[in-house]
Design a protein that fits this description.
Helix content is 40%, strand content 24%. It is an alpha+beta fold. The chain is globular.
Length: 361
Amino acid sequence: MNTPAELLIDTAAGPAHVTTPAPRASWWELAAQDADTSVTQTPTWLDCLCETGPYRDASRLYAFGEGVRIVLPLVSRGRRPRLLDVEESWPTGWGTGGPVVPGGAGSEHARAVFEDLGRRPALRVGVRFRPQDAETWQRAAPGYFRLESHLTQVLDLDGGFGAVWQHRFHGRARRDIKRAEKAHVEVEVDRTGRLVPVFEQLYDQSIERWARKQHEPLALARWRQRREFPMGRLATVAARFGESCAIWVAWRDGEPAASIVVLRHGPYAKYWRSAMNRDLAHRTWAVPLLTRLAIEEACETGCQIYDMGESAPGSSLEHFKAGFGAVGRPSPRYARERLPVSAVEHGLRTAVKRVIRFQDA
């Protein structure tokens, strides 16, 4: 862990002490007080990111007058020169970051955080905010931070599983679950990491399927997908989260059909990753069954929210999640760049897609 640095800055909300990296004890204390803290806003999540990628802890603790404290989870690329560095909360594929603030941030404190980030020497700084307080941070965002719109699909578990099954699951989801229950599917849940190799096997099969569907060379698809989700990442997450990481697997005649990974922190359960043998999973409706069981367990363990993550608007994945009652909620990302790096990267990706006749899934 980096040695913490402390500095005093002037802000619209008055003087603020900034400590970076944020002391873990303070971060966990604020996370316990902030009822909206999600799995992806915990120090454990940052540790997983740093252990499995080229990142270092750049989190910041802001201490204002009258006892107001804010922790901003943040990582940097670390090995780059400061002027070429990238600081994000979080990088693509790591979900929602954003500040941990018990009781929510006031407008002046939110502006102060943005001002501090605007002064960072990094080439790019980006923060994706959680849905619960996105509106506050949107109002505070200065014009030099570019808005990137995102939606997080969230299922409200209020009332318990009976209410969720009856009033939030759509008819098609209940029908598919009932079909799965008649398809002689065996379900196993692991909280030790033992089933990581099974998930990895199914994930490799998924990459091959995505490559065919998207008209993408398999080598390129593997490079792209494993760059975002490398071998070993799930094993690290399972080891770090322990029993709070559940790997669900559906089997048919001894062969794995599908797997999903669900993480938990406090009242939040997060559907993080999934993989499948498509032919076998579709014949047995394995994914709807695993989703139903994971949601039921979340209800039984006192969770209030089942976060199903982001999906492309209009995609089959968005449709699938909506079938379980998940509703899209804004979780905007704000970014500041000193050079138009994102525009150049987008242009290069678009050119490559055109050359290989890539088809979005």
